[in-house]
Specification:
- The protein has strands at 10-15, 24-28, 37-42, 45-50, 55-59, 62-72, 76-84, 94-106, 120-132.
- By secondary structure, the protein is mainly β.
- It has one domain.
- Strand 1 (10-15) and strand 2 form a beta hairpin.
- The radius of gyration is 17 Å and the shape is elongated.
Length: 136
Amino acid sequence: MAIPTNEPNQFDLRGVGSKDKDVHITYSTSSIAGKPLFNYTDSKGTHNFMGSQIRTQETEIDIMVTVTLEVIPDLHTITLTLIVPDINLEDCAVQFKTIAILTTHKNTIGGPCLVKGALQTYEVIELQGTADSVVF
């Protein structure tokens, strides 16, 4: 017989260390509107996403949640991917650590073959916060 688990649907994370101290991420797998919500704040500003703007992919290392922060044609696209581990809740919120990856995808109007060097560069953001289950 499978043991029932209480999976979180609300995540509240903050950057760890001086480099990422301004980073704040909230992610809800659902909301009162029935759609997921994702909010990202750093020293440059705040980005809010809902529904299909949030892409999730289940992988061997858990769930990857990706949003597009910036698109500048003929230059780059910047995405943020949050790694969400499997978490079993008990009676209260659980503290955990994870990472997010800022990826800069370089591009040109002539296609990727005109980009010199690596087409993607990565910046890792260390995060800590809480996972909880919220009833909507």
